[in-house]
Amino acid sequence: MIKTGLKGSKTVYTFPGTEKEAKNRIKWRENVVAYTFLGPALLLLLLFLIIPAIMSVYYAFTDYYLLTPDTRKFVGLDNFINLFKDPIFLKSLANTLKFVVWVIPLQIGAALGLALLLNKQRKANTFFKVAYFSPVVMSLVVISVLWLYLLNPNEGIINNVLTYFGVSAQPFLTSPKQAMFTIVFVSAWQGAGFQMLIFLAGLQNIPGDVYEAAQLDGMNKWQRFIYITLPLLKPTSIFIFITTLIGAFKLLVQPMVMTQGGPVNSTMTVVYYIYQTGFTDRMVGYASSIALLFGTIIGLVTLAQRKLVKEEDD
Known about the structure:
- The protein has 13 helices and two strands; from the N terminus they run E-E-H-H-H-H-H-H-H-H-H-H-H-H-H.
- The protein is mostly helical.
- The protein has two domains: 2-59, no CATH class; 78-313, MetI-like (MetI-like fold, Orthogonal Bundle), CATH 1.10.3720.10.
- It is a multi-pass membrane protein.
């Protein structure tokens, strides 16, 4: 860069070479600055996501055992064939799908209901927003331990309340029939506050004039909700549905802390089974094959959901 003089109150600079070369040099410098800032994040992404993912794909086709890493060998599709003969994996997959099917409508429905309640101007709205959102910012481990004490079949507060009203004490987490539904309730209670805030933002973006016009046309509250609120909340609802779907498939902490996958594997999920197989049993190759298959299933479900939503929009 060469200083050539002053033009008015500004210094005029000229660059050697053509104007195109000067622009290329400026663009190159900007790229260097950008990648300098991105470098640490890209390095962490490479070390803790990309490289482990590639290694996991490789290990999925081996019999890698953590305590004897030097003896691993390529086994092809044997791990995947054994998966479909593994009763615990099949049970964990069914449990995960059961959890997804139940928790999504319950959690999203609760979040939408809370958002509708808070959308009206009330003096205590701020307090209720904080109260409903507080479980989201708490650790899942803490929440799981808390509910573990509340749901104790002998000394838990909930069973004491049920007994007071004449209802017999329930086994909850100690029953194969009730354990997963109990975890569904706890998970929906914990996560609804986050979706509530997103729904609330979507509701507040709906123009009030639309509701006034609908009211003048004779629509009651239910009709305004069905024909105005829900259609205008569609983009928000799709976002919440996708994030809740992905989060539900990753269920791990609640069954790990509250039931350890029991009783009788009734709360064993795929992610928890991956953890047990890889870190407890140290069968890294087999655990990697489960992770690869499960990741593929989630990817296909997400793509199918996005395609259906796109076709509906078209």
